[in-house]
Automatic annotation (TrEMBL):
Entry binding sites for 3-phosphoshikimate: 30-31, 35, 186-188, 215, 334, 361
Predominant subcellular localization, coarse grouping: cytoplasm
Stored SUPFAM superfamilies: EPT/RTPC-like
Similarity annotation: Belongs to the EPSP synthase family.
Protein name per UniProt: 3-phosphoshikimate 1-carboxyvinyltransferase
Record gene name: aroA1
Pfam families per record: EPSP_synthase
Species annotation: Streptomyces hiroshimensis
Length: 456
């Protein structure tokens, strides 16, 4: 686990003293917004993103593309709609592709999508693009993207660790072709190469050689969005070889994309219904989606809740009784912190498996979850590929968050049921959900008798 930076700001997590009954409008998906930005920047005509997520990760992506010459205008469009505005109202980003150029500097922050999706884009630019980011970004795996780009013809100056910081010396075009990578540490290696693939001279064929591949829904999201932008993609699911994806060279369309709500960020709110025996409605829950967060319907139902997809959105209800779960989460790893928090409050044990790669996320999530839940009196052990969680009566205390947005939301979930939980640096939720504290207290405003735990 990376060292926890010293933060003195503690957020007293509100305790719920009754059942929640709320409708929570969750902002747009990080993963969809950042893919849409990259695809729009690589298109041959301008496009629109409607209801984009404005958060640290997506603003870093937009800023990086701007630094390489892409025009991104933020507008609030009215429903009357002039010729240049997308239909409907609300916030929208207009993306105007341009010849990509360096020199430029990209701050990736700690955004996996920025540090992995943009080096392939930079290889298409004219001139050097330097990538740097938060200290943790130096530790997150990037070798799959660097080695693959080199094999496909790119010139990159990195370091002996094969990680950030680095410079991609864009040559204005990339030959592309077939490449083998081991993406067992991150599905984002595959997504990164596929997203820019249509713009490589020969397209790209990515052959994953590793033993496991996490986060398949995110690869499906990449393929789906590429196809919607007009790319031709062959996949294992469309009759191709296992673990091989092929993108043909082609122009990409400028599109008008409505960004779905972030279903992974719906997790803490659905958890609130489960824990308090209440009801939470999430508007605009898509009927069909590639987002991993859709699996919450099944996972939280197995843990004791029930849900219904209605005209108003996903209506999720709990009874207050929480059952432990034995689940392989390798496809939906980013849901782990909130599921672990719920499991710590359950009436039976849980085993969460298939998530060794979480040790390389924003922080070592397995170590951090075990340590922080145990410091509140819990009994969580790390296994080779996950967590074993034995519920115990918990008490209040500081929950350290290691600059990890999902650790902070997990802590708030525990704080609903445990008096005196103080969440360190709740502002770290701004990585993907800047309004989390307001959304959370807004949801609880509908609970009779919700209290804010006193600072200890
Ligand atoms: O492509 C994406 O948008 C993501 C893929 C996943 O990464 P890993 O495969 O590295 O877990 C996920 O955890 C991350 O939050 C977002
Ligand atoms: C792993 C995550 O993010 P990133 O895109 O930085 O990999 C996450 O959001 O849970």
């Amino acid at each position: 686990m990376t060292e926890n930076p010293a933060h003195t700001d503690l957020w007293p997590a509100p305790l719920a003293t009754g059942a929640v009954d709320a409708t929570v409008t969750v902002p747009g998906s990080k993963s969809v917004t950042n893919r849409a930005l990259v695809l729009a920047a690589l298109a041959s005509e301008p496009g629109w993103l409607r209801r984009p997520l404005r958060s640290r990760d997506t603003l870093l992506m937009a800023e990086a593309l701007r630094a390489m010459g892409v025009g991104i205008e933020e507008t609030v469009s009215s429903s009357s709609g002039d010729a240049d505005s997308p239909a409907g109202s609300g916030e929208a980003w207009r993306v105007i592709p341009a010849r990509l150029r360096g020199p430029a500097t990209v701050d990736v922050g700690n955004a996996g999508t920025v540090m992995r999706f943009l080096p392939p884009v930079a290889s298409l630019a004219d001139g050097p693009i330097r990538f740097d980011g938060d200290p943790r970004s130096y530790e997150r795996p990037l070798h799959g993207v660097i080695d693959a780009l080199r094999a496909l013809g790119a010139r990159i100056d990195d370091n002996e660790r094969g990680a950030l910081p680095l410079t991609v010396h864009g040559g204005g075009a990339l030959e592309g072709g077939t490449v083998e990578i081991d993406a067992s540490s991150s599905s984002q290696f595959v997504s990164a190469l596929l997203l820019s693939g249509p713009r490589f001279n020969q397209g790209v064929e990515v052959r994953h050689t590793g033993s496991v591949l996490p986060s398949m829904p995110h690869i499906r999201m990449t393929v789906d969005m590429l196809r919607q932008a007009g790319a031709q993609v062959d996949t294992p699911e469309s009759g191709g070889e296992p673990n091989v994806w092929r993108v043909s060279p082609s122009a990409l369309l400028g599109r008008d994309v409505v960004i779905e709500p972030d279903l992974s960020n719906a997790a803490p709110f659905l958890a609130a219904a489960l824990i308090t025996g209440g009801r939470v409605t999430i508007p605009d829950w898509p009927e069909r989606t590639t987002q991993p967060g859709d699996a919450l319907r099944e996972i939280f139902t197995a843990m004791g809740g029930s849900c219904e997809l209605t005209e108003a959105g996903l209506v999720f209800s709990g009874t207050g009784r929480i059952t432990g779960i034995d689940a392989d989460l390798h496809e939906v790893g980013e849901l782990t912190p909130v599921i672990a928090a719920v499991a710590a409050l359950a009436d039976s044990e849980s085993t969460l498996r298939g998530i060794a790669h979480l040790r390389l996320h924003e922080t070592d999530r397995l170590a951090a979850l075990a340590k922080e839940i145990n410091e509140l009196g819990g009994d969580v052990t790390e296994t080779a590929d996950g967590l074993h969680i034995r519920p115990r009566p918990l008490h209040g205390g500081v929950f350290h968050t290691y600059e990890d947005h999902r650790l902070a939301t997990a802590a708030a979930v525990i704080g609903l049921a445990v008096d005196g939980v103080q969440v360190e640096n709740v502002a770290t939720t701004a990585k993907t959900l800047p309004d989390f504290p307001e959304l959370w207290t807004g949801m609880l405003g509908t609970v009779a008798g919700a209290t804010t735990a006193p600072r200890v």
